[in-house]
Amino acid sequence: MILGHKDMLIIYSIILLQSQSSTNQSRENMETDLSRVTLRPFSLTDAHDFLRWASDVRVTGNLRWQTFTSEEEALVFIRDVCLPHPWRRSICIDDRSIGFISVFPETGDDRFKAHIGYGLSHEYWGKGIATRAVSIAVPQVFNDLPHVLRLQAFVQTQNKASQRVLEKVGFQREGLLRKYSYVKGEIHDVFVYSLLSSDLLPLP
């Protein structure tokens, strides 16, 4: 059967609509299927995916990290900082790195405390992924670091999204520290959030 020009246009339009529908369905699934979110230790093979979000100033703007500019920089950072870190995990979708969660245990008489921080690729903001990742991380941290009784976070007052993440996971806002955090040349007010190992944790 030989198709005319008009028939070909109709078929192309149908294929295009099906493709758009499939893409929209895929995006919809991404917004709702949080079972694809996992945490794991970083690997040197993450350098390419790491650079995709660590080179974005929207992601690094609230971090003490500098914005990365090359895959070589990412590789060195993973090797020298991420791998030997006491508790740093890659946030993954289908095992592909899209962000990080770090926990910094204190030492000496303060070893019962630890600080948590995280960052996520901009394309995944607002989809519940950060909340899911932190909710997975919290019980793991208390299990892996049994001497830690208090997990705390310092969040810049203007970072509403991060505050919502912590509150959804069960962290309590304890107060305001004025002119407390120095990030990229500016000093910020921060809210203090905490979660105790004895607190009831929401199901991840």
Overview of this protein structure:
- With 204 residues, this protein is of the alpha+beta class.
- It has two domains: 1-32; 33-196, Gcn5-related N-acetyltransferase (GNAT) (Aminopeptidase), CATH 3.40.630.
- It is built from six helices and seven strands, in the order αβαααβββαβαββ.
- It has helices at residues 5-32, 47-54, 57-60, 71-82, 129-144, 160-169, and strands at 37-41, 88-93, 96-105, 113-120, 150-156, 172-183, 186-196.
- The chain has a seven-stranded mixed β-sheet with strand order 1-2-3-4-5-7-6, with helices on both faces.
- β4, α5 and β5 (150-156) form a beta-alpha-beta unit.
- 25% of the residues are buried.
- Mean pLDDT is 86; it is low at 8-30.
Q: Indicate the mean pLDDT.
A: 86
Based on secondary structure, the structural category is alpha+beta
Number of helices: 6
Uncertain segments are 8-30
Q: Report the end-to-end length measured between terminal Cα atoms.
A: 56 Å
Radius of gyration: 21 Å
GO molecular function: acyltransferase activity, transferring groups other than amino-acyl groups
Pfam family, one: Acetyltransf_3
Organism: Brassica napus
Protein name: (rape) hypothetical protein
What's this model, at a glance?
The chain is α+β, with helices and mostly antiparallel strands and 204 residues long. Helix content is 38%, strand content 29%. It folds into 2 domains: 1-32; 33-196, Gcn5-related N-acetyltransferase (GNAT) (Aminopeptidase).
